[in-house]
Design brief:
The chain has one domain: Tetracycline Repressor, domain 2 (Orthogonal Bundle), CATH 1.10.357. It contains 10 helices and no strands. It is globular. By secondary structure, it is mostly helical.
């Protein structure tokens, strides 16, 4: 049998592995506290005490506490991009790939709506010209050991992932060739953040069916406009 040549976390230098463990442990310490308290109510010293590092070490990794949410978003988009790529290849469909992103997000949000609401608030405050540091290969391999090739994926935001799969959908004939990718990306982003914001903590389980319903309307609308009946 051929040997497994995939890069493993254990194969990386100790310094990379140590850095990855600290960064992910700090993120998990924050995520476990969100809900009963907002991020502004969670002191850095409390996170450091759980991970057993100094505050000086914390700020070497994350210049601001809110950077942990940015880091969470980066990891999330890497994971979603991997699953969307798999769906696109498996089903030869850009729309299925986008649907995969929404379905997985709905599943995660159903058990973590408070995290999603914090992320939405954080996204609203992020400057448009922010240049994000990359996510290291050790962090990727430690977080996603069962996703082969995850260490090679670009660290893209949702506004970069969606246009790529919309273009695949156009190329596959799932959407009209004249579809406006920029407008569709805006519509999908509004849907992605808007549904959880409207539903909030009242009924997180409703997010999945609402996502499916609204996606169907977006696709129908794109085809309707192409048909000249708008």
């Amino acid at each position: 049998m051929p040997s497994d040549t995939r890069l493993r976390f254990e194969d990386l230098p100790l310094r990379e592995r140590k850095r990855a463990r600290i960064r992910l442990a700090l993120l998990d310490a924050l995520l476990s506290r969100l809900g009963p308290r907002g991020i502004d109510q969670i002191p850095v010293r409390e996170l450091c005490a759980e991970v057993e590092i100094s505050e000086v070490t914390f700020f070497k990794h994350f210049p601001a506490k809110s950077d942990l949410l940015t880091y969470f978003i980066q990891l999330w988009t890497i994971e979603m991009a991997w699953h969307a790529n798999q769906a696109a290849q498996r089903r030869d469909s850009g729309l299925e790939a986008i649907g995969e992103i929404f379905a997985r997000t709905a599943r995660d949000v159903a058990s973590g709506i408070d995290i999603m609401l914090e992320v939405i608030a954080h996204q609203a405050r992020m400057p448009k010209d922010l240049v994000l540091p990359g996510v290291g290969r050790a962090e990727r391999l430690l977080r996603f050991p069962d996703l082969p090739g995850v260490e090679n994926l670009p660290s893209e935001g949702l506004d970069a992932i969606l246009p790529r799969f919309l273009q695949i959908a156009i190329d596959r004939g799932e959407l009209p060739s004249s579809s406006d990718i920029r407008s569709l990306t805006l519509a999908l982003s509004s849907l992605f953040f808007g549904v959880p914001l409207c539903v909030g903590r009242h009924d997180p389980a409703a997010i999945a069916p609402l996502y499916r319903q609204q996606l169907a309307l977006v696709w129908a609308g794109a085809r309707h406009i192409q048909g000249g009946t708008s």
